Amino acid sequence: MTVLLLNLLVAGAKLGYGALSGSVAMTADGFQSLLDGFANVIGIAGIAVAARPPDREHHFGHGRYETLASMAIGALMAVAVIEIVQSAIGRWRAGETPEVTWLSFGVMLGTMAINTAVTLWERRNARRLRSDLLEADARHTGSDVLVSGAVILGLAGERMGLRGADAAVSLAVAATIAWAAWGILREASLVLTDAATDVEPAALLAVILAAPGAITAHNLRVRSSGGLNWVEVHVTVDPLLTVKQAHEVATGVEDAIKDEIGPGTQTIVHIEPAEPPHTRPDPIFGNEITIG
């Protein structure tokens, strides 16, 4: 809630003074800050839904609702790009120039300080909570800091008589927002398509094969969802082991996986006898994960 209020305060300052001074770049920057506020509202709702436990319809929980919220943020940013470009082109054609005062610079520097603090807080908590949504919002807010710096340069250019600097900077603002939106949408799409975004399969395999009792492994599959990793793997063991002994091997593999990529990792280890055809190469990785 604090982040939401700060974003709204920043947006109000930029939009208000941008309208009074006629600066399309400051107004564009304010529009981006307003999107940050909308993103916070979407984020609060997304996190609330994502925290729900599994139910009859969502057996793996609701973590991907957080990813959907990230995509909504990216979509809002894409809309902002269109609006900013249209406004900049219109102002450029009209030949209008903003009124630049020292208060203009004061507003921008103050909002930059607030955005920097918000970005650092969100990035720290995104790593701690493994939150896709917080990471997306931190990236969005972080782009605000760079954009505000560019706006200051544009205002300085206009004050020194460089006509069109304000409109040119607003186009740079649009490009920055577009790049951030692309990154958010790309990462969200990787999660929704079951991509392994932060796990190296070969390194994970080495950990699995190092577990006591594991002889070979295949069908290693990793996907990310809701800030967690989900791992499935088939591990072969001595065919003469008892069910209890084989279960202990599986437990050891699960513990090794969690030690490697995080304690919240969800694992499924399927045990098979170490004899053909169970020692076959993996259909994706080939022989690289069947050597014990």
Task: Give the arrangement of secondary structure elements.
Layout (H helix, E strand, L loop, with lengths): L1 H20 L2 H27 L13 H31 L7 H28 L2 H28 L5 H28 L8 H9 L6 E10 L2 E10 L5 H19 L4 E8 L19
Parallel strand pairs: 2-3
Antiparallel strand pairs: 1-2
Helix pairs in contact: 1-2, 1-4, 2-3, 2-5, 2-6, 3-5, 3-6, 4-5, 5-6, 7-8
Verbal overview:
This protein is mainly alpha-helical and 292 residues long. It has 2 domains: 2-192, Cation efflux protein transmembrane domain (Alpha-lytic protease prodomain-like, Up-down Bundle); 201-289, Cation efflux protein, cytoplasmic domain (Alpha-Beta Plaits, 2-Layer Sandwich). It contains 8 helices and 3 strands. A 3-stranded mixed β-sheet has the order 1-2-3, covered by helices on one side. A hairpin with a 2-residue loop joins strand 1 and strand 2 (228-237). Helix 2 runs parallel beside helix 6 (165-192). It is elongated and about 85 Å long.
